[in-house]
Give the backbone structure.
Amino acid sequence: MKAALLVPRVTADPAVNLARIERMAADAVLSGARLILLPEGVLTGLANNDDPIHDLPLGQPIPGPATDRLGAFTRRHGVWLGFGLLEREDDTLYDSAALLGPDGSIVLTYRRNQPQWHGKDADPTVYRQGSDIGVAQTPFGRVGFLLCGDIFDDGIVSRFRALRPDWLLLPFARCFPDGTADQVRWDTEELPQYAQRVKLARTPALMVNYIGDSSLSDDDSFGGAFFISAEGEVRARLPLGVEDSLIVELHGP
């Protein structure tokens, strides 16, 4: 079965982002993909600045408008689709992900357990973390989410591994402090660390990052998509800074 890891350019306009996601996902379907994975916070980017007045409007409920619209897409094309979003529940905000099934239903939701998607001084009554980790049974095996920094927390990885998943879906959002998409630095310093963490999880991982548009304030996320084996081998990759799809073949568990 083919999976498509989509690397879109994310702007400050959620409507533009959603339309781009649908176009790229439609192209992936034409390429034969049955699973489509999108990055962390892909509807808005991780544009939060720890001001609830600014940040709460970035969030959407689950279920909500985005899951409804993308669920209609998965139902129309008979595919699976996973994506990250800022989730709003009343006056609280989470960094979350959802997996939609080919019937349009929400098969799995996840709230990032690790807190570094917001500042350390952010109001804890607004900016929240999840505590649960789950997996969903699919035709291509048992799948579960972690988000970005979760993969660097030993306790979270251990709990994930104990669920005996067949696939790790790892949407993330990364940039370098200097704002560059430094491929050499990524290849020599950063990617090997991610590969070692995937090896610790003992689960093959699909990783995907968005490209931050200049309209997003202080977001220089540099893109990239990666398929890493349970042994920590990078099997396929998409270079940084390229708005494209990485198509990979998934073999059964």
Q: What stands out?
A: The longest strand covers residues 80-89. The first helix runs from residue 14 to 30.
